[in-house]
Fold this sequence. Notes:
Layout: E1 24-26, E2 30-33, E3 38-41, E4 47-49, E5 75-81, E6 89-95, E7 98-104
Antiparallel strand pairs: 1-4, 2-3, 5-6, 6-7
Amino acid sequence: MALVGHWKLDGNALDSSGNGLDGSLVGSPVVKSGIISDCYNFDGSNSIEINHDTGFTANSKFTMCAWYKGTDTGTALLSLNYISDPHTGIDIYTSGGEVGSHIISSWSGDAI
């Protein structure tokens, strides 16, 4: 398995993997000076959307990771939803000062 995408988010949403899965800014996230390079400051009303079909399925082997610094809880940090069914997918989130994840293979309409 090869790297699918790598988004440094250092002032842009370009995919550094060479696969062309560039993201789009939604809203107006603010670019801040980070420790190594620039980074984005998200306030809950903006995000970066990578809207490409990567061939990922619920049976795919994968790794997701993110560097995160923040004070907000109850926030999705990373979310991967299937283009064919946006109510299924995977996310990494914060809640009550802890980090968790969801894997949703079907949507009943009342899941959190």
